[in-house]
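Course assignment 3, question 2. Fill in each field.
Student: A.L.
Task: Predict the tertiary structure for the chain below.
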Amino acid sequence: MRAAGCYQVDAVFYTGDRYERALQFNTDTQNANERIPLTRADDLLACVTDETKIVCVELVEGATPLPAFRHPKNAIYIFGPEDSTISQKVINKADAVVYIPTIGCLNLAATVNVLLYDRLAKSDLNIAGDKLIRQSRDNNNKARVKRGLTGS
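Answer field:
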């Protein structure tokens, strides 16, 4: 949910019972669950409207590498579980299947963050600047870049 809040996701759907077990380790310090609907679903495909593109994110043969992928305007991203895979039924219904080209596999949280960052970075949204940094950073962070520093 923290990633959903950071990357302006409209809604989150999940299956299974892992989310309920993970609630005790809540890391959503922004309380995104107060702004973003979180819905348990028995079948993610039942959550898809006619205008929504289905994008599976999984290490499967034949998938498109994320750097080459163009995100649809209206999409539901279905992520594979950490110890299994997205069902072939769901993959067959997908409009696209993408993977993050890494050596080894990422955990689910890292995968979600990378995918959502890629979506934002490739969008037309202009999200940058010191005002955003001041709104987003932790209260204990007051650091500044020394003027004239170029980062190169």
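Instructor remarks: The CA atoms of residues 69 and 98 lie 7 Å apart. The mean pLDDT is 82.
Grade: pending
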